[in-house]
Specification:
By secondary structure, this protein is mainly β. The chain has no helices and 8 strands.
Length: about 70
């Protein structure tokens, strides 16, 4: 199990995956927007999205949980 956490304060611009989706190392989970830049949040291991803790339009802070991969 891996927790994917935010590395910065940002807006959730686009959610690319859904709970139950299979993901592979290098896949994009969500795209964040900060200071008019789009920042993809990348999966670092293969697995299934067990929990998705953000929705489009959310404002997240550094350390906030984005997703759990099992």
């Amino acid at each position: 199990m891996a927790e994917v956490r935010a590395e910065m304060v940002a807006n959730v611009w686009q959610v690319v995956v859904r709970e139950g989706d299979t993901v592979s190392d290098g896949d994009t989970l969500v795209i964040l927007e900060s200071m008019k830049m789009e920042i993809p949040v990348i999966v670092e291991e293969d697995g299934v999205v067990a929990q998705l803790k953000v929705t489009e339009g959310d404002v997240i802070k550094e350390g906030d949980l984005i997703a759990v991969i099992e």
